[in-house]
Amino acid sequence: MVHTSRRRCIFCGHFPELSICKTCREGATDIIKLIEQLGAQEESNHDAGMETSGHRQGLVAVASKTRRFEDLVKRSSYLKKLLKALLEEVHEDIELVTDDGLSVGAHKAALTFGSKVFRSMLENKVLSQTCLRIRVPDIVHNELKRLVEFIYSGRLTPEALKDHSKSLMVAADKYDVPQLMEVCEAYLVETLNTENVLGILELSARLSSPAVLESAALNLILKNWKSIIFFDEYEEFALKNPLLALKVSRSVPEWF
């Protein structure tokens, strides 16, 4: 048994000094190098493909955003023209009259589109008339004008928000203009403070959907109740609004 103490080459079966003979080792080395080269090439191709794919996706995203921006520009241009028609009183076919006898001209189609309540009011009128006159109660002329302008343009000026947000919130709720409600609601929540919180809470009780304003007001009162409830203003508020005062007391457990 000449080679019993030596191991055979695991590839060719010969008896080299190492476990793999020189020839097989060189062949295995060449195979390993080839595999590594193929792997590197595949990885390079994959990276290039990923880069190309990522670049392509980036271009598609940019193109999509560009199209959306162009669409917004077109919509904005359309709304500006519509608002211009209102401001310049072009072919108005309806007149909204407030309690003080002042009126705001508009177009039936725009009002029907912007307010379900106006739509219902117009459906009950003789639409064949050249120009309708519809009484709009419980809103002053300046605020009615802002309401109609919002229906045409979808926006309010900062001055209009600052001066008329509360009354426009009520008007938007009454005439079912949900987008205007959202704008006013967001502004009122953003500007909520300890000085106006009772007024905002009182306003919420006049709305058909008071949850957002009421919750924001109660949370602020809860955080600052000591600086709110021990003043004459709160006593007057509680006398006028006993149910709201009860909600306040329930939200401030420290009282008990």
From TrEMBL:
InterPro entries, sorted: At1g01640-like, BTB/POZ_dom, SKP1/BTB/POZ_sf
Protein source organism: Ceratopteris richardii
Any Pfam family hit: BTB
Domain BTB: residue ranges: 92-160
PROSITE patterns named in the record: BTB (PS50097)
Function: May act as a substrate-specific adapter of an E3 ubiquitin-protein ligase complex (CUL3-RBX1-BTB) which mediates the ubiquitination and subsequent proteasomal degradation of target proteins.
Pathway this chain belongs to: Protein modification; protein ubiquitination
PANTHER family in alphabetical order: BTB/POZ DOMAIN CONTAINING PROTEIN, EXPRESSED-RELATED, BTB_POZ DOMAIN CONTAINING PROTEIN, EXPRESSED
Protein name as annotated: BTB domain-containing protein
CDD domains, per database record: BTB_POZ_ZBTB_KLHL-like (cd18186)
